[in-house]
Amino acid sequence: MAVKAARAAFNNPAWRDLSSTARGDLMFKLSALAEQHSHLLATVETWDNGKAFSSAQGDVDEVVGTLKYYAGFADKIHGQTIETSPAKFAYTLREPVGVCGQIIPWNYPLAMAAWKLGPALACGNTVVLKAAESTPLSILVFANLIKEAGFPPGVINIINGHGREAGAALIQHPDVDKVAFTGSTATGREIMKMASQTLKTITLETGGKSPLLVFADADLDNAVYWAHKGIMANQGQICTATSRILVHDSLFDAFLDRFVAYIPTVSRLGDPFVPGTTQGPQVSQAQYDRVLAYVQIGKQEGARLVCGGEPFMSSGYFIQPTVFTEVTEEMRIYREEVFGPFVVLVRFTSDEEALRLANGTEYGLGAALFTSHLSKAHRMARAIQSGMVWINSSNDSDYRVPFGGVKQSGIGRELGEAGLAAYSNIKAVHVNLRV
Ligand code: ADP
Predict the structure, then answer these.
(1) Is 205 assigned a catalytic role?
(2) What separation in Å is there between the alpha carbon of 192 and the centre of ligand 1?
(3) Residue with the nearest Cα to atom 9 of ligand 1?
(4) Which of 205, 301, 336, 417 is catalytic?
(5) What are the Cα distances from residue 376, in Å, to 95, 187, 223?
(6) How far is the CA of 283 from the centre of ligand 1 (A)?
(7) 312 φ/ψ angles, rounded to the nearest 5 degrees
(8) 286 class by beta-carbon count within 10 Å (0-12 exposed, 13-18 middle, 19+ buried)
(9) Could you mention a single GO BP entry for this protein (predicted)?
(10) Residue ID of nearest Cα to ligand 1 atom 23
(11) What is the mean pLDDT of residues 203-229?
(12) Which of ligand 1's atoms lies nearest the C-alpha of 194?
């Protein structure tokens, strides 16, 4: 029913023939409504996900900004004129792809919805968006605002349901033209397979095991600050989390001491609605169990648990910030994505070794590097295999800047002008002037 409604809306003159500026106006209106209802949206997001209320407020700000950013693009998407010969020329049209199936994860439900809706709507598509089963509510509240903004019926359809049922049905539907997914690499693989049946275009934003490199000439306090943010924010449930900290041998002990001492001063676990809380519970029992299972795996593999590794409080899915050292490249805790407040520290002795370690995983999402050596920073930024690099920082994300991965961290880009590419087809029109 949702796909049918999206198809009908795609062919409805009320949407299809709407001027691009008017399309942008609807998006500006939606952005303004999200801003107006930000307290409600953030409250429901915290209930749904367990993240600190202040973080949820930041997520809603991102929704407002992302929709506004792409609203501005709606009437600036156009083709080119291409001179070929005196007798002929060609021009291109940017056409919407059609009905887009969008599957979003539970770690940033509203923000991920905005990342996907923004470019899809700016380009004139219609959408069926499926929320994650563990965070079904905030998007339903948001759906009321879509109606209130005045989008023609069927342009945006929100569905809830389990991945293997609702998600799989959406991706396999023959009348869906494009699929966009954010989630785990394993699910991304399944989605790619299912989308191949009707050759749907796909964008995937999947997992990571992003490195954070601390070189010998790094500003140590700055590196500690960002290393903490890069893995402990959002309960560690971030695909770009810098979950492997690689530190030059000469600094390793000093870094470890400061990092471990810093954690209790900034990680405040507890009720996400209490002001000052920075870390809420993991999103679900499954994620809680998964992170604690990786603690056991780390111990069994012979790594050293420096701090954390235990639940916090007797109820709720709280996990103490967890740090492992004496970790080797073969260990699962070094290679596999844990998706929790869980980090491993490893030493390196040369730039070559740092680069080899940084690139030595199947993933390539983000990478952070800390150095005061200007040209080394930029050399490394080029050499690291990842979609994003943070110099003397970690996990910056901005709707004006492209976001995405290489290797098994994804296909395509979201955000920025680059995020529009996935949502329109280019049609070439050849014109003969010799008549
Ligand atoms: P996690 O394993 O961390 O919960 P997933 O990648 O499985 O993350 O989930 C992200 C999104 O993908 C959710 O909306 C989920 O419902 C959906 N999903 C999961 N499995 C499938 C599937 N087989 N087909 C389509 N969507 C799926």
Answers:
(1) yes
(2) 13
(3) 183
(4) 205
(5) 43, 37, 16
(6) 14
(7) -120, 125
(8) exposed
(9) polyamine catabolic process
(10) 164
(11) 98
(12) 24
Whose structure tokens read 């529009």? 420
- 204 CA from centroid of ligand 1 (Å): 12
Identify the helix (H) or strand (E) that includes residue 381: helix 374-383
φ, ψ for residue 189, nearest 5 deg: -60, -45
Sheet holding 366-370, edge to edge: 304-307, 322-325, 342-348, 244-248, 211-214, 366-370, 388-391
Indicate yes or no: pTM above 0.90.
yes
**Cβ-Cβ contacts under 8 Å for 396 (sequence gap 6 or more):** 390
Cα(74)–Cα(221) distance, rounded to whole angstroms?
43
Domains along the sequence of the chain with CATH: 2-207 (3.40.605.10), 211-391 (3.40.309.10)
Ligand 1: list residues with CB < 6 Å: 103-105, 130, 132-133, 162-164, 167-168, 171, 183-184, 187, 190-191
Q: Look up residue 301 and give its two tokens.
A: 């593999």
Give me ligand 1 centre to Cα 163, in Å: 5
**Residue 104 backbone phi and psi in degrees, to 5:** -115, 155
How far, CA to CA in Å, does 162 sit from each of 132, 135, 188? 7, 11, 15
All residues at 6 or more sequence positions from 308 whose CB lies less than 8 Å from its CB, including other chains:
263, 319, 320, 321, 322, 323, 341, 342
Residue 327 amino acid letter: V
pLDDT at site 314 = 82
260-269, 306-315, 338-347, 396-405: segment of lowest average pLDDT = 306-315
Distance 183 CA to ligand 1 centre (A): 6
Q: Of 56, 186, 180, 171, give the one whose Cα is nearest residue 108.
A: 56
Residue nearest to atom 20 of ligand 1 (CA): 163
Model pLDDT for residues 272-322, shown as the tens digit of each residue? 999 999 999 999 999 999 999 999 999 999 999 999 999 998 889 999 999
CA 184 to ligand 1: nearest atom:
6
Atom of ligand 1 nearest to the CA of 103: 14
The dihedral of CA 397, 77, 177, 426: what is its sign?
Answer: negative
Averaged pLDDT for residues 171-177: 98
